[in-house]
Amino acid sequence: MRFLLTMTALAMAAQPLAAHPGEQHAPAAQPKTAPLSDKAAVQSVLSQYKAAIEKLDARGTERLFATDSAILETGGVEGNYANYLAHHLGPELSEFKSFHYSNYKIEVRFIGPVALATESYTYRIETKKGEVADRLGVATSVLRKIGGHWMILSMHNSARRPKAS
User: What is the CATH number of the domain that holds 91?
Assistant: First the structure.
């Protein structure tokens, strides 16, 4: 099933995005900076998302995702990013005291107009109730340049408990 979802996401990413009336894929406002290499630009998008999670404030992260994005998390299909933010990520972040990534590694490769990014990391979550979760995590993201900016089309995250030492 995961293979099928990943292949579907890749096939969708390779197709031109259909324009929908009134729909915007590009961020509303872009800072005026020198153009980055595509690899650095993709890494920057994912870094901005990671930084927002660590700040426990996902406001503005919608601009990093295509409107018709697909989010998959630990065996669940979460819908597009707007749905994921409203019904999963946003409420979850409000319950956390802290979220910290470490041992972060990223690999980015390009297949035609699509960037495939694989991230691996460990993370620690502390809830406001005092619960602590240490996890090993991975994420695979498919990005495409839309309106001149790299945006996430599909993101699949999964995590597991580290093996006891």
Answer: 3.10.450.50
pTM, full prediction: 0.78
Note the pLDDT of residue 165: 74
Q: Which residue has the tokens 């961020």?
A: 27
pLDDT tens per residue, range 20-70: 344 444 444 443 443 469 999 999 999 999 999 999 999 999 999 999 999
For residue 55, is it within any domain? Answer: yes
- CB environment 122-152: b (16+ within 10 A), e (fewer): ebebeeeeeeeeeeebebbbbbbebeebbbb
Residue 126 lies in a domain: yes
* Structural domain count, the chain: 1
**Which residues span the domain enclosing 88?**
37-160
Is 20 a member of any domain? no
Cα pseudo-dihedral 76, 113, 147, 63, rounded to 10: 30
| Region class of 51: left (phi > 0), else alpha (psi between -120 and 50), else beta | alpha
Residues 130/113, Cβ–Cβ less than 8 Å: no
